[in-house]
């Protein structure tokens, strides 16, 4: 009965210690971050960011430590949460921000919601979608799907979502996070087609916090990647190649994981499914490739150009 909203929190948070419960929908979800250090003795040094929204706007929410293994996988994009006994802190200034699907949505960037296992222990409840009432005024999850024919005209670093049929997937490769560092990023290259162009989407897929999906990307699977960033080669190279890379908030889905996801209602997703129904599976299988070394961006044809 006594609920507050994000807009009211931003105006009153300095003058309060105890806040009324919040009812919000998750619009974006970051990868899980491990911040453990050998000299610091912490049981579960994990952290994950979410962007949550209600009728008044959108705000960051941070899940801390042992709440991460308990809640991270249950908190999906589109999930509705009832939160109580949370704390409010000023925002961490250096975190990444996803591009909202709804550009009109107000963003409360000065503060963030903090969910902790103690001081005080946050109470989290997931509201099943069938119990969510329209009068709560929670926003729907919106996407920014593009087709392959639209990609070449998009600027560098533009944020978008894509769907396609996987025609190539490379082996998993590693890159050092920093020079001389012992930490590595794990990534693989993939190609996906959507029928709007002769060219595929070239996707640089870093391992997100979804190992069960990352390891099972195969040719002929329907692949959805959200919050991808456009990488345009900005040199004068006439044969420039545009590709997409994952961001901190990217989510990846393959056949078997699509059911119930909010993007299934999107018009461009429905168009892709219609196109796939008109294709011969046998013809597409002949064009697929798996594994091997994939040098990208490709070096020039001659040593002189190089």
UniProtKB/TrEMBL annotation:
Protein name: RADX protein
InterPro entries: NA-bd_OB-fold, RADX
A GO MF term: single-stranded DNA binding
Domain of life, per lineage: Eukaryota
């Amino acid at each position: 009965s006594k609920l507050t909203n994000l807009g009211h929190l931003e105006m009153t948070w300095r003058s309060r210690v105890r806040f009324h419960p919040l009812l919000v929908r998750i619009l974006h979800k970051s990868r899980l971050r491990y911040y453990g250090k050998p000299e610091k003795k912490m049981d579960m040094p994990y952290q994950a960011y979410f962007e949550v929204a209600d009728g008044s706007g959108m705000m960051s929410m941070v899940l801390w430590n042992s709440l991460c293994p308990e809640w991270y996988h249950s908190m999906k994009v589109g999930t509705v949460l009832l939160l109580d006994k949370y704390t409010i802190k000023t925002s961490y200034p250096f975190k990444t921000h996803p591009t909202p699907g709804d550009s009109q949505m107000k963003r409360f960037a000065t503060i963030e919601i903090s969910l902790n296992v103690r001081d005080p222990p946050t109470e989290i409840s997931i509201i099943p979608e069938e119990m969510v009432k329209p009068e709560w005024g929670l926003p729907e999850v919106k996407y920014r799907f593009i087709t392959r024919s639209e990609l070449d005209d998009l600027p560098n670093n533009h944020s978008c979502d894509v769907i396609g049929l996987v025609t190539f997937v490379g082996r998993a490769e590693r890159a050092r996070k920093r020079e001389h560092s012992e930490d590595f990023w794990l990534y693989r290259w993939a190609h996906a087609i959507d029928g709007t162009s002769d060219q595929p989407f070239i996707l640089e897929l870093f391992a997100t916090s979804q190992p069960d999906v990352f390891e099972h990307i195969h040719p002929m699977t329907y692949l959805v990647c959200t919050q991808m960033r456009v990488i345009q080669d900005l040199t004068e190279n006439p044969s420039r190649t545009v590709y997409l890379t994952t961001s901190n908030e990217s989510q990846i889905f393959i056949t078997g994981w699509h059911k119930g996801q909010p993007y299934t209602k999107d018009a461009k997703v429905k168009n892709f499914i219609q196109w796939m129904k008109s294709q011969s599976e046998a013809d597409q299988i002949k064009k697929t490739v798996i594994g091997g070394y994939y040098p990208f961006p490709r070096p020039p044809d001659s040593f002189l150009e190089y």
